[in-house]
Design brief:
Largest sheet: 8 strands, antiparallel
Oligomer: single chain
Number of domains: 2
Length: about 600
């Protein structure tokens, strides 16, 4: 079989200036298989979240040229999202991308270690089916700041191997298609009302059949609201704008998907931050070595004990367990941390009870805190039993995190909610004065901005108003996730009570777990897969302490006081006791 090589050259000027990058794909590949032209070309380009295909892709569709946003501090990244199309009708293509530093003449540089930047293609290899396309990213990250502009040159080789197309009926993982996104399930009680949101936060009722309700391929996630008791939904026909005072809670739909595994054994060298590959699909994956694996579950279709990786291997796709354990094609996540109804200040929102009437899920309200885990769990469960409401668990947090850190989400670090009063939906203002971040002083916003502003959108999982907020900072969020056979239980749950609960509403971890037992993860929970974890720090330097029998309950997101240690990939351990810095989040999982 002949092999074609497509070469990409990348030129950069790095420091406090922007980075100018040129990615060039040379020539049309024709392997002479009868008259079937085999051509791989760029069909889409998105730079830092903005679709710029016409600007960046040249007329031959063989090159993409772009200038990054300003990279001024360590860790700053610019991401080019691309789509590669295979126009063959007969041949599939195996594509591998490798990048190396070169000198001014284009020869391999003596040192492949760059002092200032890293450049990472993700995925490094992919399969593009005949007449189909695949998406990927090239990430430029500043790892060291220079006062001078630094010029570096990289050469990325795209190696393409054609192969005979698989016969109809053979199984493979196809490129995701927006047609495969599971339609949001509004349940049977009529409480969830589909809405669209303007950038300033105004909610407008839409029909659930409205094509513009959501578009996950363009980072537009589906939103819905529940109205306050006593408010007749007929007050708001399709096309009308809902008054904020009539809204009790906001929710965001997470559709079922499979993702490509990269660190099954927590030892893989690819532990650096990268875009997570996701394929939307309502069908569960099966054991197909090198292609996909069956999600490790017990015979009751609920999550088995942590540490079980089944037959899964790196590079294979696996249906995320959060969907299988609930038996759903998607679930609704509280758009904000759970708030306390009618709280007038941060102190009055600290109430240790399980009354579901106290629940509101809205922006700019005081987060409900100082509740023990049992009360959190019971209040969440009683919130709306018809919609199978429950307290969020680790795998559900992970499902949101992975979708967020893909081309369908912000695909970057989420800005912290640094509001000192624990108000929901806020974001730290961009500033070089680090004394103003992570927090402000007093009972209210000072150095932060609300959700419905341009800067506020940076705290969303999508980078726009349709995503989920408060997943970095605000308060810690207890998860319905614990280590087996713990000692004294400050959550006030007895072991007998836990054993009587619906197992699908908990993630359970092995009793051998210690603070560094990252291998006891559950695939998809956004803990050990982010490793190997150094110095108790996960992606973006987020804190990462695994739960153990002395502190058996997981907490996520981190509080605003921890600053850079808090984040989407933060996880910690706690006793389950009520705490003034810890709250919770609600998930709805209506049955199919």
């Amino acid at each position: 079989m002949k092999k074609g090589i497509i070469v990409a050259l990348i030129l950069m000027s790095i420091g406090f200036a922007a980075v100018t990058t040129s990615l060039v794909i040379n020539g049309t590949i024709n392997y002479g298989y009868d008259s079937d032209e085999f051509d791989v070309y760029f069909s889409e380009a998105i730079l830092d979240g903005e679709v710029k295909s016409e600007e960046l892709i040249d007329t031959t569709k063989k090159s993409i040229t772009f200038t990054t946003k300003e990279l001024s501090k360590q860790g700053d990244r610019s991401i080019l999202e691309y789509q590669v199309m295979n126009n063959s009708k007969q041949y599939d293509a195996s594509v591998t991308i490798e990048c190396e530093r070169v000198d001014e003449s284009g020869n391999t540089a003596q040192s492949q270690e760059s002092e200032y930047t890293t450049i990472t293609p993700s995925p490094a290899s992919l399969t593009v089916k005949a007449q189909e396309s695949r998406k990927g990213t090239i990430t430029v990250e500043l790892k060291k700041v220079s006062l001078n502009n630094i010029e570096e040159k990289f050469k990325c080789s795209l190696t393409v191997n054609p192969s005979e197309r698989e016969e109809e009926g053979e199984k493979y993982i196809a490129e995701n298609s927006c047609e495969n996104v599971a339609a949001p399930n509004l349940g049977i009680d009529g409480k969830l009302i589909p809405i669209t949101l303007s950038d300033d936060g105004k909610a407008t009722v839409v029909s659930e059949d409205e094509p513009n309700w959501y578009d996950y391929c363009n980072k537009k996630w589906a939103n819905a609201v529940i109205l306050n008791d006593g408010v007749d939904s007929q007050k708001y026909p399709v096309g009308s704008q809902i008054e904020d005072t009539d809204i009790e809670s906001y929710f965001v739909w997470i559709p079922k998907y499979k993702y490509r595994l990269w660190n099954v054994h927590v030892t893989d060298p690819l532990y650096t931050v990268h875009s997570i590959e996701i394929e939307f699909d309502t069908k569960d994956t099966e054991d197909l070595e090198g292609v996909s694996c069956k999600t490790p579950m017990n015979e009751n279709n609920t999550q088995g004990l942590s540490g079980d990786i089944g037959k899964c291997g790196n590079g294979e796709y696996m249906t995320h367990p959060a969907f299988i354990s609930l038996g759903v094609d998607g679930f609704w996540v509280g758009k904000f941390e759970t708030g306390y109804n009618e709280a007038s200040d941060t102190t009055s929102a600290q109430q240790d009870n399980n009354n579901p009437n106290n629940i509101i899920i809205k922006p700019c309200v005081y987060s409900w805190r100082n509740v023990n885990v049992k009360n959190m769990f019971e209040a969440s469960k009683k919130y709306d039993e018809n919609l199978r409401s429950h307290m969020m668990k680790n795998t559900e947090w992970g499902a949101v995190a992975y979708l967020s850190h893909s081309i369908f989400g912000i695909n970057n670090e989420i800005t912290i909610n640094n509001n000192s009063a624990y108000k929901t939906g806020y974001a730290a203002l961009p500033t070089t004065d680090q004394s103003k971040n992570p927090g402000d002083s007093g009972d209210g916003p000072k150095y932060n901005t609300p959700w419905n502003t341009k800067d506020g959108h940076r705290a969303s999982t999508t980078g726009n108003i349709t995503g989920i907020y408060d997943m970095n900072g605000g308060n810690w969020e207890y998860m319905a996730s614990y280590v087996l056979e713990f000692g004294d239980d400050a959550s006030t749950f007895s072991k007998e009570e836990l054993s009587e609960q619906d197992a699908s509403f908990f993630d359970v971890y092995d009793k051998s777990s210690t603070i560094i037992s990252y291998g006891n993860m559950i695939l998809g929970d956004a803990t050990g897969e982010m490793g190997p974890i150094n110095d108790h720090k996960s992606w973006y330097g987020d804190g990462s302490d695994f739960a153990d029998t002395s502190r058996p309950w997981f907490g996520r997101g981190g509080p605003r006081q921890l600053g850079s240690l808090s984040g989407l990939f933060y996880f910690t351990r706690h006793t389950g006791v009520n705490n003034s810095g810890m709250g919770f989040r609600i998930v709805l999982s209506p049955s199919k």
